[in-house]
Design goal:
This protein is mainly alpha-helical. The protein contains 21 helices and 5 strands.
Length: about 450
Amino acid sequence: MINILIFVAFLIRLIALDQSLWLDEGTTAKVIRNYSYIDVVKKFLPNDFHPPLYYWFMKFWAGIFGSSEIGLRIPSVIFSVLTGYVIYLIGRKLKDRNTGMWAAAFFLFNPLVIYYSQEARMYMMVTFLLTTALYFFVNMGAKTAPLRNIIFFGLFSSLAFLTFYGSVFLIAVFLIYFLVNRQYRTFIFSLLFFIFSLIVISPLLYQQMANARESLKIVANWTQVLGKANLKNLLLIPLKFFVGRVSFTPKIVYYAVAGSWSSFLLFLLARSRLAGKRLRVFVIGPLALGLIFSFFSPLFQYFRFLYLLPSICLLLALREDKGLIRGIVLSGFMLWSLLYLLLPQFHREDWKSLAKQIKPADNVYMISSSADALIYYIPGFKIYDLRLKNDDLKNKRELTIIPYTAEIYGIDYGENLKKNNFRLISEKNVRNLTYEYWMKN
């Protein structure tokens, strides 16, 4: 039965898998195409804020399967369905086969999971690694945990940290749990694994932190992107966890429907039975640590905690509900997922369509560091930086402006263009993107 569930989940993830890459996926493509394994660390990552393992894996993958949209996204599809299988094993261990099936189904058809299962980024890879670490944690038993399980737990949690720094919050909660429960041998081995991975990555991490501080000074509204520790970002976590990236107007209707659905699931989680109480620690703990950390360095956004959804799905499955409640939960997840998959307005930014509107002779201005997705579709195309200088505009009669991320960088390009006798001729839109034509008077 689990094989059928995994197969169906895999097929569903193929729907709209060739939709346009967006900015961060364009960056993934740029890295694996333009940098060697060594240059990923030396030249690219110091100005990024991720560890190298995902990029190295994707470079190896693309060397075999290519860097098409589908080729870049298939690893996330595979990691997500593998995670579903590991969740099944955990649920079976905690209670029985039926619990494992429901937990796997909740995860595999969760709308946010399906969205990130189709994204060429590291979030599904780290979710798989941390869920596998959770599997070995569950199999440890009491204080006399088998050394094999401790080693595998330490290995997978360390690989997770080398894939995504945000995994540190869950790893920290695991370490605290071992210490509080006097599992000293497990604590020491797990801590040594983490310290080793931290030492390996520390030279790069030091560079990244220094460059990140400079970026926060230079980019006017960068903290809005990273995720401040505030009530809005806190409330978005359960909302997006249970609804995914679907949003519609009027907003009052969306918040009423999505909020009611999320509240229902939070109620179920709050009343989970004793069997799931230990798992709650591994949901609430990382969120609390992430919130506290974000008061000092902002990163409190829901997708950075995607790796908590396996524990949430296990908690939902461990409830002693009748089939009706479980059926409602699964049906709700599938409904939100199908809304995303089948309605293109909920898909990613459509750089593919925008690229088709651009002519080779166009003078295209945008934030150059935000142009990776456009360059993916128009290789070698010259992009002019949107930080317009008067000398750049003297010999230009017509401009195409893509104002993407201009607000984040605090750039008022319109005022500068008007001072140089340009006027806005037209404004066009493709999904979640705008581009403008300006002409000199």
